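We now fix the convention by which a protein and its fold are recorded. The integers have meaning only within a learned vocabulary of local backbone shapes. A record is reproduced here so that you can trace the correspondence yourselves:
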Amino acid sequence: MKTKNLHLRIPALILLTAILFTSCKKDSPVKPKENHLSSFNILKSDGTAFDKNDISISVATDSISVTVPIFTDVTNLIPDLKVDAGASVSPANGVKNNFIEPVTYSVTASDGTVKKYKVIVHHDKLKNVVYVGGHDKNLYALNANTGALIWKYTAQGGMEYSSPVLVNGILYIGSVDHNMYALDPVTGALKWKFATQSSIMSVPAIVNGIVYFGSDDSYVYAVDALTGTLKWKYKTGFNADTDPLVKNGVVYMGSGDGKLYALNALSGNLKWSFDTGNLLIDWRILESNGAVLIGGRSGVLYALNENDGSVKWSASVGGGNTLERSKVVINNGVIYITDGAYGSLRAIKESDGSPIWKSLDNLGFWSGPTLANGFLYVSSNDNNFYIINAATGAVIIKKMLITNGSLATIADGKIFVAAGGEHFFYALDAVTATPVWKFPLPESILNSQALVVDKNGDW
């Protein structure tokens, strides 16, 4: 910011200097103004230091405010007070203490004068965490900066299909053990689980306090988001394992019977259905400009009027290749889609499904693309991971990575993707695709798409 008069700038500079002198954000230890205490830091229960990006310490005249990651156990933190020569500290310095409530430390100087500091420890908001489910029956919470394990929850079956969803402080994920789970995102503790009669491959949609999902028992379910109690269920003709869309009071769900169902979100009553004539499985239902997109094993992509299910347009994508697991992306009038085991990555017009470009011809795909910052991130059946220019389809990066069909998530300049064929979960640099860290998954060959809560607490 520019100012016209020098005398207007001087008070601001003095104020800025005072703030910087008395407070330090994300840089520890901190030196206060008083002579009794030369610096203050706080350590983890094992005596190691927090990452400087994960902690902030602010020292005032008689108090010290500390903010630690939300996962931190504050009952066993170790204070590290550096005091002047000859000074003593009470309670004892360097000894574990419980900081659930503020703790006051008295620093007695060699001349007998005493200075007291009330240390107040706060938990930061939820951020810098990755949640990913595995074929090994575990849902993992990992540090997004380092890949360190925070916690894991073990179900009775795999969690490799139904990706985790976080809404209003609850983490939801389905399992092939037939249950939909609701977990505490901080501790991994179970809040509730809801049992169906078969595997849950559907990624849940949570809207207005209701969790919507499908099961391979052929039912679409609506359960209370806080308690897991059933509100309604609707029977389709076969496996209901697409990812549902909830829009304007309507739940859209595809089934292996070939039909897309539009159901009243509150009652479960059928509004309309559309028969594609082929299997609809493992598809992410999207809506744009009043059209619901649905594709299945026939390789035909339909844009249906959301009000009555009438066909706006249809297009055969990839010469009849299956659209299973395509997980389409729509942006600025363009649909990005992969087509099948022997297909290509394509960009087509949202208005009519006509082609714009295709890339990675005939390599085959068992996952769709992820779009971020003008690039597409996609895994191919040739055991490579690609970064593609979204405008042209040109290959920017090709990296060998055996993902076994896992979708990528992009956040904080990193690509988060599982490589089940290599038994690792990776964080890669989003520009170069070089590994930042990797977490071992020795028993997991398939993994869900990761949910990432970024450095700002967004996901």
In short: Residues 410 and 416 are 6 Å apart (CA to CA). The domain at 162-281 is CATH 2.40.128.630 (Lipocalin). The two ends are 32 Å apart (CA to CA).
